[in-house]
Structures are given as structure tokens and as C-alpha cells.
Amino acid sequence: MAVKFSLFPGKTCANNHPELDNGFRLEGTNGKAVILIHGLTGTPHEMRFIANYLNREGFTVLCPRLANHGKPIHILQRTKWQECHQTVRNSYLDIQGKYTHIYAGGLSMGALLALLLADEFKDIRGVSCLSPTLFYDGWNSPWYRFLLPLGYWTPLKHFFYFKEEPPYGFKNKAMRKRIHEYYHQADLDNLKGVDLYGYPYFPVSLLHQLEKLVQYLSRRLRHIHTPVQIMQAEEDDMTSVRNSQFIYERVRSKQKEMILLQNSYHIITADQERSLVAQKMAEFFS
Fold first, then answer.
1. Is the four-CA dihedral 161, 167, 168, 174 of positive or negative sign?
2. Cα distances (Å, whole numbers) of residue 255 to 127, 128, 226, 251
3. Which residues span the domain enclosing 133?
4. pLDDT of 15 higher than 50
5. What is the CATH number of the domain that holds 215?
6. Mean pLDDT of 63-79
């Protein structure tokens, strides 16, 4: 990841910022609902394939856009993890009591938010954690990630950004090329395509929020008894399999499973084994 410093990121485009939707909802037929949660700096679009698959299986699917995602990056960078959690809670509260079963699934940080939802609402029937992200320790993580905590407790965290670099979480070459064409020319003031591809830059302040979320969730894992499914690529470029093992070993669920994929990187919801991921989720939720 390349590092960039900016005092006024995104403010030059704030007045021309397009209004984005708040996510999407697909009505199902089997009386069951699934809440799908995208990753930090991501977009509901990264969950679209999974959502369509589950909907064809009869599930109603809700995929909310997390708090401040899609807005200028100077707004996004001030977001607290609790705001993202509240987005997910609101989606659940909107459908509570309206379906016979409600499940939750999330990608990357979204997997952590799905677990928190199950910790709070015991009627969640199952959680599917996809590429859960507690530690950025994948093979493509920058060596200087160990220095990040030094900046968390200073104002500098609001002025530094990491720019995504190949392979962008994709083993699929066609998807990687498409993302590269957007990210390569993207700037902190350029939000064109953010609704499809997410943010090309990752504010250091959000990494700090992720760390706070991880600290809170780590204390709650032993209280989770909901059935848990965990899926991750063995070659995950952003987070190692240690992340999945950490969750698997600490939740108290009687029913839990961990599936390791052989032909994907981090974004398993849209990479080469996305059909297998969708199939395993549908089986788990059934």
C-alpha cells in the first residue's frame, strides 16, 4: 500500500458529491431473511452476487450501506465503528419479528459486525463470517503496518491514507484489471466509481476504529453461542487464516465450521470461488 498525506481530502468535490442509495433489498419467498454486511471502505455491490444467489434460494436479503460510506472521504474518515454497527442494528430492527428466521453474514469487517449482531440479538439463527478481519497480516500487507499504532493516538491519523495496490483482494485477473483501471487514476478528491468499487484510499483513522472494534469483539466472542460459519481463502492477501482460527477457537457455538478456499484472495464474495461461497452459505442458513 502506498501512503499519502493530505490536509483537506475530498473537500473540493463535496459540493458535487452524488447521492448514493442506502443499499438494497431483495424480497424472498421462504419467510427467512439474511442481512449481508460489506467491508470497511467497501460497498454493498461487493455482496451483490451472494445476495442474488440467496434470493434465488428464497431468502429475503438486506444489504445496507454502512454509515458515511459513499460520502466524501473527509466525512468517512471521522466515522466511528459504533456508527457502522448502528447501521446493521437498524437493518435488523426493521425486520425483527417479520420473518421466521433471520441470519447475518459479512465480509471482512462486516463479518465482525455480523458477530456483534448475533451477540446482542439471540434470535439470530446463524452467522456467516467471510474473510474476517481482525489483523492485517496477509501476504500483501505492508511491512510498516507495525508502526500504525504510533499514529493512532495523534492527530496525524486524520491526515494519512493508504492507497490500495494490486491484487486488490482478487485472484481473478479480469476483476483485478477492472479494479486497477479505477484505482490507478483515482485521487482523494475523485469519488467516481465509489459505489461500485469502494474507496481507493483507506484512512488511517478508520484502521484505528477497526482496532477498537476488534478489541471490543474479542471480549464478546466467548458469549456467542449462535451457529457460526467461517470462510476464508488460504491465500488471502490481506488477512491470514489466523483471523478465522481466532474466531473459531473463541466462540462457544455448538455448531461451527471453518471452510478454507483454495483459489481466491480476500474478496471471496466476488472472486473465483464466489459460487461455492454462496452455495455454502445457503446450505448453512438452511
1. positive
2. 11, 12, 8, 10
3. 2-285
4. no
5. 3.40.50.1820
6. 94
pTM of the model: 0.91
Q: Report the C-alpha gap between 188 and 194 in whole angstroms.
A: 11
Q: Give mean pLDDT, residues 98-121.
A: 98
Give every CB contact of residue 70 below 8 A, 6+ residues apart in sequence.
20, 43, 191, 194, 195
Amino acid at 14: A
DSSP state, residue 66 = P
Q: Are 36 and 61 in contact (CB under 8 A)?
A: yes
What is the residue whose three cell numbers read 458529491?
Answer: 17
Q: What cell numbers appear for 234 in the block?
A: 488460504
Task: Decide if 114 contacts 92 (C-beta within 8 A).
Answer: no
Q: Domain count for the chain, please give it.
A: 1
- Cβ distance 35 to 117 under 8 Å? yes
Burial call 201-216: b when 16+ CB within 10 Å, e when fewer? bbbbbbbbbbbebbee
How crowded is residue 11: how many other Cβ atoms within 10 Å of its Cβ? 15
